[in-house]
UniProtKB/TrEMBL annotation:
The keyword Kinase applies. One of its GO terms (cellular component) is cytoplasm. Pathway: Cofactor biosynthesis; coenzyme A biosynthesis; CoA from (R)-pantothenate: step 5/5. Its EC number is 2.7.1.24. This is Dephospho-CoA kinase. Catalyzes the phosphorylation of the 3'-hydroxyl group of dephosphocoenzyme A to form coenzyme A. Keywords: ATP-binding, Coenzyme A biosynthesis, Cytoplasm, Kinase, Nucleotide-binding, Transferase. It catalyses: 3'-dephospho-CoA + ATP = ADP + CoA + H(+). It comes from Microbacterium paludicola. It is found in: Cytoplasm. Belongs to the CoaE family. ATP binds at residues 11-16. The keyword GTP-binding does not apply.
Amino acid sequence: MPLIALTGGIASGKSTIARRLAEHGAVVIDADALVRELQQPGQPVLGAIAAEFGDGVLTPSGELDRAALGAMVFGDPERLARLNGIVHPAVKAESQRRFRAALEADPDAVVVYDVPLLAEARGTGEWDRVVVAHAPADVRVARMIEHRGMTEQDARSRVARQVSDEERLALADVVIDTSGTIDDTLAQADALWRELRG
């Protein structure tokens, strides 16, 4: 079972690649979706976040108030580290459980872990391949303005808060250049699939 880490900066086209690999039959596990699941009411992670940061991070209905939590940890490295200390181990344990389940269901499965913060988390070295979706920062900023309605300042700020392209590319076994057309990106994803299945 090849275990692939798929990463890329914001608006890099990573989700397009993940969808294409899923169409080919890959089992895609989305790290962001996992985080949201683990932060649902009744989950131990949400309880631990509320215990650490107070009930002010919960909505009246008991769900996580992401904006309130974000405001609390933004620009405060110590608080952010405490939050990551709650969330990251839980995400890692759940992702490992899902990798094992995919392997048990199909020993020949290609499992793709769609993980935006691989470089920030420094990975764990368990990957058969690290695939980086890459487009220059200016291209990604233009996409965020066009497709997400962000201001240029907001878009550049989001890019600046992530690790540099150089750090991300240093992890790559495979780079998919997403700066061209969608068809170019899909063709590279198709070529990667053929290589993985070859």
